Amino acid sequence: MERFLSEVLIDSQNGGGESLIGTIKIAVLPTAKVFTVCFLGFLLAYFKLLPANGRKLLNGLVFSLLLPCLIFSQLGQAITLEKMIEGWFIPFNVVLATISGSLIGLLVVSIVRPPYPFFKFTIIQIGIGYSAWCMLGSGLGSSWNC
């Protein structure tokens, strides 16, 4: 984290990229908007301005439609074509690690033979765990090759 912040400070001093305050603003604003919507929902529930059915419907609408729109509209300001071209390998590595982890999970399931209700769950958990392990290893810059 310290290395990232120092690079941001150096880039902003050299005139390239955004300032540190701009970067923090891009990171904090979506979260602040989410908390604002959650607080408004709390107020509606606390003062019983909506019946229970209305709150349930509004809750589904907010969490499935409005919050993702808030987050992605803010992220859209930070993502440019240059950044997408520069980071093309990230989604490729995530998909590759998830597929290889799922294949390892399939191998483990064929050896261990868990009960039927846990068959898919085991494969998915091993796939996600392996991809997280690969991302953690690559992020640490160590010799954990996946």
UniProtKB/TrEMBL annotation:
Domain of life: Eukaryota
Protein's name according to its UniProt entry: Protein PIN-LIKES 6
Organism this protein belongs to: Camellia lanceoleosa
Taxonomic lineage from the root: Eukaryota, Viridiplantae, Streptophyta, Embryophyta, Tracheophyta
